[in-house]
Design a protein that fits this description.
Number of helices: 4
Helix content: 40-55%
Number of domains: 2
Strand content: 15-25%
CATH topology of the largest domain: PH-domain like
Radius of gyration: 24 Å
Distance between the termini: 22 Å
CATH class of the largest domain: Mainly Beta
Strand order of the largest sheet: 1-2-3-4
Oligomer: single chain
CATH architecture of the largest domain: Roll
Shape: elongated
Mean pLDDT: 90
Length: 175
């Protein structure tokens, strides 16, 4: 098949999962071990430095407790702000999603075209950075933009893996 045409209505759940699908770092086992060893080494060095400073009476236990409390308060504040901002971003995206209605998309070796109640666009394959698989969808990523396509919307008899393979091949050929 040289062209895929699909029509679907995106759900907020699928959009939220697609928005976060590419944000997960993929580290090899060796990279994970190096990161863990570096973290352990820094923790040991910091503990040794603090014990030495306490032994030299350069800092007191009260100063250390205050610094620790301040650090953890700042960390909790950052976590709160991060969660709040992520919720706000998801809310904005879901509000726009509710207005766009049904999406019609066409994928060919030349380009990708999307059309919904709010907009229509045609994008060259060199616009895209990645084609990713979710359990129930394919996600195209263009910079920070994501374009999820539910597997259920694929033409009858189309294997999602073959669809992703075609998209990846077309994207790589355009680079």
């Amino acid at each position: 098949m040289t062209t895929y045409s699909v029509a679907y209505t995106m759900t907020a759940d699928m959009q939220s999962r697609a928005m976060l699908s590419w944000a997960k770092p993929t580290y090899s086992v060796a990279q994970k071990r190096k990161r863990w060893a570096a973290g352990a080494g820094l923790s040991i060095a910091a503990t040794c430095a603090l014990v030495w400073l306490l032994g030299q009476n350069l800092i007191t236990a009260g100063m250390l407790a205050s610094a620790g409390a301040g650090f953890y308060a700042a960390l909790l504040f950052w976590l709160f702000i991060n969660k709040r901002n992520t919720r706000m971003l998801m809310g904005f995206a879901n509000e726009a999603l509710a207005r766009q209605g049904q999406t019609k998309a066409s994928f060919s070796p030349e380009n990708v075209a999307f059309q919904n109640d709010l907009a229509s666009s045609q994008m060259a394959w060199r616009s895209f950075d990645d084609v990713m698989a979710m359990p129930d969808a394919t996600v195209l990523r263009a910079g920070a933009l994501i374009y999820p396509v539910p597997d259920a919307a694929l033409p009858e008899g189309t294997n999602p893996q073959a669809f992703r393979s075609d998209l990846t091949r077309w994207m790589e050929a355009a680079k």
